[in-house]
Design goal:
The complex is a heterodimer of chains A (595) and B (688). Chain A has 14 helices and 20 strands. Chain A is of the alpha+beta class. The longest helix of chain B is centred in the N-terminal third of the chain and has 31 residues, at 199-229. The chains are: A alpha+beta (595), B alpha+beta (688).
């Protein structure tokens, strides 16, 4: 009898698989609708086109239930912020009608432009979770363009504060914010959009709770997270135990030009757990490429999710219970106050790629070769003579090449891993809004690393100024080119060039140009790198090489020199005999890398 | 109008060709259903016409919707096509919007252009955003390119020049040169399809048109020739993705406008029913084997959108033309349920028609939504397709038990019940996709259910969302075909025209609208039917200054007559508030694009009336009882034959109403009335 009672109780607390699936679809729908509402109401292109935002639902303890991406690298930023807000106010002081705000860089791990709103969700008087939304504001005050060397020059810092206190807006705070913004009306528009988003999350989550009951829904959420954990552990178990390492570097910190910033990662796999040790990545730097420890954790989580549960939705904290990250303070991804953070997003991408590189020897079928790993953003500002108004135009992200895999070629012209469903802006729109002409937006042939599977191609964009304006760009990875794997060639790196008085200047020491003046007719060009190749180029079927030449993805010369394939320049037919001879002789020589 | 008194409507789907025939003189509406014949689709049409007891000679009007355009695009069976594009932009079609929807998937995929890079040619020319010429077009270069295309055996050419919305002269000239020199070449210029900014989307649109063009042109030509040979002397009109009609020869050059003709016609049918029943707001809910689709009727009008993505989000190709605003989820009768590491999941995989659900007995072993419906008694094993196809309940039960029940510790029946509950929420997202996400309260809408599986699930979907009324029209299985009979001639135009509202020059704006409307009137004048009258509607895509995304705002003609900026602003603020829950009346607004819809109203067939009966259905309608599962157990539940029901009949749930290709499910508390047109009008119990 006793046993029977126990069974009954166990069943009572066990989540119903049907309700669990309904709640799973439900929470995904909630964060997606938050996303839709934010995007459509937002005032700036970075939110609407670049999708530089993230929405989410969290448990009452601040654990991630579902994230609407947004910005893949911001996978931790909101959860840490929610937890900090709970701690800051104390759970008993969290009231219905509150909305909390902060843009504390050392908390979100990113830059001050990331303003994060959190709304506690109450059901019949008890706290059942949080609805949260981060969005990138176009301007947050601070120095315009150029380099920063501390956080104070980067704009307004908003500590954890109440934006709404039990339904009442904090007008004092709003006045302070407005006073510090170059574009206060845009900022207020974005803030309104964020409020809409968190309120949407609250309303829709409560509908789920009302429909299926609080306990059922919370049990289902627990079951979803447990399931994600089980999936991640199973996938981790399939990686052989061991300690794996890899190195790479960033070009420089923008201040000490040419001084490499070393990156070294260790990955320890044991049973169904993984540890990503980032102790040996570089100390924080003087230039603004630092990020906070939250981003150190995010690097580990992004790499881990890609390898263990890439398509498990909703994105939730269950997937990361089997992951440990070692991130001591004071590194480039765990910088401490007052380190400058404005360009937080660049370095972490290379760290993620380096984790893949470390694991390439043991799970060659699950990793990719290096990618272009930069947003390749350019900013222009000036005064539009037609309207006499100040304009700030952000160009980018540009998209670039992605690494090849053991089973397929790399993808061309796609946004880097920091970003996800981010769109570029139409050239036709830029030309209406700003006094510029886009002269070229095109793939760069031969930019992908050669290999049995070829890396994806990079992209170039050339933009001509029609009035005097100031150009700024902060591109990395000009020197540390996206690497190939398992004999695959490296891709070309990221590049910047300026056309001044009709002559191209390309001899920059890196790809960072801070404050260059363009006259009418002058132009800038950003060129993204390709993706690394996978496997030996000499093993690529000659017909695939011929097709690449016919389509113009690689040149006739590259076909011959890197792939050992001889083609008829008119018909692109493979000269089989000549190709066999050339390949035989190339196989005899040491592996040739792409020049 | 030509001799003959019949209107024929033919909707070609993947499996069936549905025919609806309306006799103008007698008012009779008949239907025919025949298997589609993919290799020679016209045979399916003729077979269906014969089955409906009709003849081409007696027809004054032939209305046609088809999946030929969309299938050519999705199955990649189009022409060898080339793209001529502004210098420097050869790759924009391949670069696309650079987005990566599956954020953590290293094995993500990207869209694949319909025109390979080797056939994308750059042209020395450049327009600026204000229509000023930066680099003039060289006619000789186009002529040389034309020869190159011919040498390479290209069948179709698409032309995309930057900023052509501001000045289409270069595109027009290039097209004229190609057409003059190469009369067999199918040539399409982007401004003919869309004069809206966004070069990638416009490029993908014109490329799709060129790619599917030769095949669609041939297809329509074949049908026309076949019908004319059989004595047809009437007008041949094709349904566009907006649900509006255009002349067959227009469809032969602007093929991309008919991509979604079938689904759109269903929404038009719903709109017509709404008008007859005096219903303002409705959802058109269409559920078939693989998907559930929802469209919206708001204040009596079917809602359209300016662009859509074709073929799955990640690898989608955009099409930037007016289309019915339809939201689709992968949940249909064939959706497969599975257990994934202890979690119950439904779809998106579908068993399709072959092997089909386990109960079809065609080799399918995986449990589907249809299997769940059968095991729960909602479908009758011997009543499917009027009994023409026997369903195998034992196979369904076996699949449910072994694949779902055993791993989760459930019986086959519990598994089936769970699958339907999940399916209901999944389908409710299709409806939410077009209501709540557009700022509507679904509770204010009536759900019209059709498609083979729509009526099976409609009442529960409605209950899930909080809708109070469901209507199942007569012959829901061929609803798209009958919907076509209620279409109007329609031409949609858009022109990007950036200006701030505060100093928008009304005279210039009027000129743009008039130019668009002139095109529409000319197009209507060029069709072979005479509409009763022409109706013009204007709208503008607007946003607050600084915003990127614009919303389409319908604007009454009076605001233009009065040059009333404030009224335009008020319409915009209201629209913004409706869709997004907020507005900013103190902020300034700008106009992005001007839209005009020119409609040639056609005479509609009247809704046929059903003989009147009493409150209690006639005895002949009663089809016996069978056990149906709900509320935790099987209940003996009455079934009715729809064909025998009379107007005024009332049926209280639980009950099943069965007809040839569909079954309507009523649960306890639901009440059904048969209205004067034979619609099943259901009051949903517990609608929130």
């Amino acid at each position: 009898m006793a046993r029977k009672v126990k069974m009954k109780r166990a069943r009572k607390t066990k989540a119903d698989p049907v309700v669990t699936e309904i709640v799973r679809n439900g929470v995904i729908a909630v964060t997606e609708e938050m996303k839709t509402n934010l995007m459509r109401t937002a005032y700036n292109i970075i939110i609407y086109e670049a999708l530089d935002f993230t929405t989410g639902l969290f448990t009452a303890e601040g654990e991630t239930v579902s994230i609407g991406i947004g910005l893949p690298m911001f996978i931790r930023g909101m959860a840490e912020t929610v937890k900090a807000k709970i701690k800051h106010f104390g759970r008993k002081n969290i009231k219905p009608g509150d909305i909390y705000v902060t843009n504390d860089s050392y908390l979100t791990g990113s830059h001050l432009n990331h303003v994060t709103l959190t709304l506690p969700i109450f059901h019949k008087g008890s706290l059942v979770g949080f609805s949260c939304c981060m969005a990138h504001w176009l301007d947050i005050g601070g120095t315009l363009g150029g380099m920063t060397t501390d956080i104070f020059s980067e704009g307004l810092q908003i500590p954890i504060l109440k934006l709404h206190d039990r339904g009442k807006a904090n007008e004092t705070l709003i006045d302070v914010i407005k006073q510090n913004m170059r574009l206060p009306s845009r900022a207020m528009g974005d803030l309104r959009a964020q409020i809409t988003a968190v309120k949407t999350g609250e309303r829709r989550f409560l509908e789920l709770v009302d429909r299926y009951g609080r306990d059922q829904v919370l049990r289902a959420i627990k079951a979803i997270m447990d399931h994600s954990e089980a999936m991640a552990r199973a996938r981790t178990r399939s990686i052989p135990d061991g300690v794996y390492q890899a190195e790479s570097y960033m070009d420089d910190d923008g201040i000490e030009i040419g001084k490499k910033v070393p990156i070294k990662v260790r990955v320890i796999v044991k049973g169904d757990e993984m540890t990503v040790d980032l102790s040996e990545v570089s100390r924080q730097v003087r230039g603004f490429y630092n990020s906070g420890v939250t981003t150190g954790y995010a690097c580990s989580q992004v790499a881990y999710k890609c390898l263990t549960s890439p398509t498990d939705y909703p994105i939730n904290d269950g997937s990361f219970r089997s992951l440990k990250a070692i991130v001591p303070p004071g590194r480039i991804i765990s910088a401490v106050r007052p380190a400058p953070m404005r360009w937080w997003m660049t370095y972490p991408m290379t760290i993620v790629d380096t984790v893949f590189k470390a694991l390439a020897p043991v799970i060659p079928d699950r990793v990719i070769a290096g990618h272009h790993a930069d947003l390749l953003i350019a900013a222009l500002h000036g005064i539009n003579p037609k309207t006499s108004e100040f304009f700030l135009a952000n160009f980018g992200p540009l998209g670039g090449g992605w690494g090849a895999k053991r089973s397929e070629d790399g993808v061309s012209a796609t946004v880097c891993i920091n970003d996800g469903d981010t769109h570029n802006g139409p050239s036709e729109q830029s030309e209406v809004k700003f006094p510029i002409v886009v002269e070229r937006y095109a793939l760069v042939p031969d930019s992908g690393g050669a290999g049995r599977h070829r890396g994806g191609l990079g992209v170039e964009r050339v933009v001509r100024a029609r009035v005097p304006m100031t150009f700024n760009t902060q591109v990395e990875r000009a020197h540390c080119r996206p690497w190939g794997l398992n004999g695959g060639g490296d891709a070309s790196g990221n590049e910047v060039a300026l056309r001044i008085d009709g002559r191209w200047k390309t001899d920059f020491p890196n790809a960072k140009v801070l404050v260059a003046m363009l006259k009418p007719g002058d132009a800038f060009r950003l060129r993204s790198g390709g993706g690394g190749g996978y496997g030996l180029p000499l093993d690529r079927p000659a017909t695939d090489v011929a097709a690449d030449v016919e389509q113009g993805y690689i040149s006739l010369a590259a076909a011959k020199e890197l792939y050992g394939v001889v083609l008829d320049p008119q018909t692109f037919a493979v000269d089989v005999a000549a190709t066999e001879r050339l390949r035989a002789s190339l196989r005899g020589s040491p592996l040739r890398r792409q020049a | 109008m030509a001799p003959g008194q019949l209107r024929l409507a033919a909707d070609i789907g993947g499996t069936f060709t549905d025919i609806a025939v309306f006799d103008d003189k007698t008012g009779a509406l008949t239907f025919g259903k025949a298997l589609s014949t993919p290799s020679h689709l016209v045979e399916g049409i003729s077979a269906g016409v014969a089955k409906a007891g009709s003849d081409y000679r007696a027809a004054a009007l032939f209305l046609h919707g088809s999946t030929v355009a969309i299938n050519t695009m999705l199955e990649r069976t189009g022409a060898k096509a080339a793209l001529l594009i502004t210098e420097g932009f050869r790759d924009i079609y391949e670069i696309g919007r650079i987005n990566r929807p599956d954020a953590y998937n290293l094995f993500f995929q990207k869209h694949v252009p319909l025109i390979e890079r080797a056939l994308r040619f750059e042209v020395t020319e450049r327009m600026l955003a204000d229509g000023e010429i930066d680099t003039p077009l060289d006619d000789a270069e186009i002529a040389a390119l034309g020869n190159e295309l011919e040498r390479r055996g290209v069948e179709a050419a698409a032309i995309l020049f930057l900023n052509c919305y501001a000045n289409a002269d270069h595109e027009r000239r290039a097209k004229a040169i190609l057409e003059k020199n190469h009369p067999a070449l199918f040539v399409s210029a982007s401004h003919e399809l869309s004069q809206e900014y966004r070069e990638f989307e416009r490029c993908a649109t014109v490329a799709a048109n060129a790619y599917i063009g030769p095949k669609v042109r041939r297809y329509i030509g074949e049908i026309d020739a076949h019908m004319r040979a059989a004595g047809f002397a009437g007008s041949f009109l094709v349904v566009q993705s907006t649900g509006g009609l255009y002349e067959a020869d227009q469809a032969q050059s602007q093929c991309v406008r008919m991509l979604e003709s079938g689904p759109a016609a269903g929404v038009i049918g719903t709109q017509a029913l709404c008008r007859a029943l005096k219903i303002d707001n409705a959802i058109a809910f269409d559920m078939g084997g693989t998907t559930a689709k929802a469209g919206v009727i708001y204040r009596g009008e079917a809602l359209t959108t300016g662009a859509a993505l074709i073929g799955g989000y990640e690898r989608a190709l955009p099409v930037q033309i007016a289309m019915m605003d339809i939201f689709e989820v992968s949940a249909g009768g064939g959706s497969i349920a599975r257990v994934d590491d202890g979690a119950l999941r439904l779809g998106p995989q579908s068993a399709g028609a072959s092997p089909g659900p386990a109960c079809y007995g065609l080799g399918g072993t995986e449990p589907t939504v249809t299997d769940a419906n059968l095991v729960l008694g909602r479908l009758g094993a011997d009543r499917f397709l009027g009994g023409e196809m026997k369903l195998d309940a034992a196979s369904a039960e076996r699949a449910l038990k072994s694949r779902i029940g055993d791993p989760l510790g459930l019986s086959a029946v519990e598994a089936a019940d769970g699958i339907l509950r999940i399916a209901t929420t999944a389908m409710s997202y299709a409806v939410k996709g077009v209501t709540t996400e557009r700022g509507f309260d679904a509770g204010d809408f009536v759900l019209f259910a059709y498609g083979g599986a729509g009526p099976l699930h409609a009442v529960e979907v409605a209950r899930e969302i909080g809708m109070r009324k469901v209507i199942v029209p007569p012959a829901p299985g061929v609803f798209s075909a009958s919907g076509m009979l209620f279409s109007d001639l329609r031409y949609d135009f858009v022109r990007t025209w950036f200006t701030s509202l505060d100093d928008a020059p009304f005279d210039d704006m009027e000129e743009v609208y008039r130019a668009l409307e002139r095109q529409g009137r000319d197009a209507i004048a060029g069709t072979s039917v005479k509409p009763q009258r022409i109706e013009i509607k204007r709208a503008a895509d607007m946003r607050y200054v600084g915003q990127e995304h614009a919303v389409t705002v319908d604007l009454p003609m009076t605001v233009f007559a009065r040059k009333d900026r404030k009224a335009i602003k008020r319409h915009f603020d209201a629209m913004h508030a409706q869709r997004y829950g907020t507005s900013a009346p103190e902020e300034h607004a700008e106009v992005v694009s001007l839209r005009s819809t020119v409609t040639g109203l056609m005479r509609k067939p009247p809704q046929a009336k059903l003989a009147r009966g009493r409150r209690t259905p006639p005895k002949a309608a009663f089809g016996g009882k069978r056990p149906v599962y709900y509320a935790g157990r099987f209940h003996s539940t009455p079934t009715y034959r729809r064909a025998a029901l009379l107007a005024g009949n009332r049926i209280k749930g639980p009950a099943l109403i069965e007809e040839y290709a569909s079954t309507t499910v009523l649960m306890p508390g639901d009440a059904l009335d048969v209205d004067q047109f034979g619609n099943l009008v259901i009051a949903v119990a517990g609608g929130r």
